[in-house]
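Human: Here is a favour to ask of a fellow structure person. Comparing notes only helps if you start from a blank page. Give me a protein, with the fold worked out from its sequence. Please set it down just below, with no commentary around it:

Assistant:
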Amino acid sequence: MTNSELLQYCMSKPGAEQSVHSDWKATQIKVADVLYAMVHEVQERPAVSLKTSPELAELLRQKHEDVFPSAHLNKAHWSTVYLDGNLPDSQIYYLVDASYQQALGLLPEQTRQQLSV
């Protein structure tokens, strides 16, 4: 999977907006100003940082060498995943969906209704 393929998937979510974080050389994907994905390169490899529960983050990191704590975000909740590693694309898409759902959970009910989610 490439960064552009993942970015396209992230942007297909209702209310998704992208911006560039120039200091980190990353594309941030937010829903109503809540970050749910950061697409970037780590050690010249395509990667995405996603939010999960601390328990899932720890489990993924133990089982997959291509998943590790995010450098610039809360390491308990945010993991970075290499897109060109051994984690199946389907699992990466699942993690994007889960991160998006967590972001939605932080939004007021009225905002969620406006997004029809």
